[in-house]
Design a protein that fits this description.
Layout lengths: L1 E2 L5 E3 L1 H11 L9 E8 L5 E8 L5 E6 L2 E6 L3 H4 L2 E7 L4 E6 L5 E2 L5 E3 L1
């Protein structure tokens, strides 16, 4: 297990509130932590991953405002400096990603290219 002292990504106050709300729901598995990452696919080449998961040997561990997080070591190259926000409005609802490493982002906001 590897722990990093600075966080590779940041969460806005709105994102922190929503993640804590999700963690407090009935049926939440407390052995899972928040995974931040990427996977291939999407209209721009890569898609963001944000969800609760079990840690693996390839993950680095960090904490944001007491929320335990993990990220595959190889994903930092694509995500370092990214801000994750929560939009709770009627027109746009969900997590949004502001990634300074993305050279191109699709209209849906969930996929990007570097």
């Amino acid at each position: 297990m590897s722990t990093i002292t600075s966080t590779p990504v940041t969460l806005t106050a709105g994102a922190i509130l929503e993640i804590r709300r999700l963690m407090g729901e009935e049926g939440f598995d407390p052995s899972q932590v928040l995974r931040v990452g990427v996977k291939g696919g999407g209209c721009s080449g890569m898609t963001y991953v944000l969800g609760f998961d079990q840690a693996t040997a390839e993950d680095e561990h960090f904490s944001i405002e007491g929320i335990p997080c993990i990220m595959n070591k190889s994903h930092q190259l694509y995500l370092y400096g990214m801000e994750i926000d929560w939009q709770g409005g009627l027109n746009s609802r969900g997590f949004t990603f502001s990634n300074p490493n993305a050279s191109k982002t699709c209209g849906c906001g969930t996929s990007f290219a570097v």
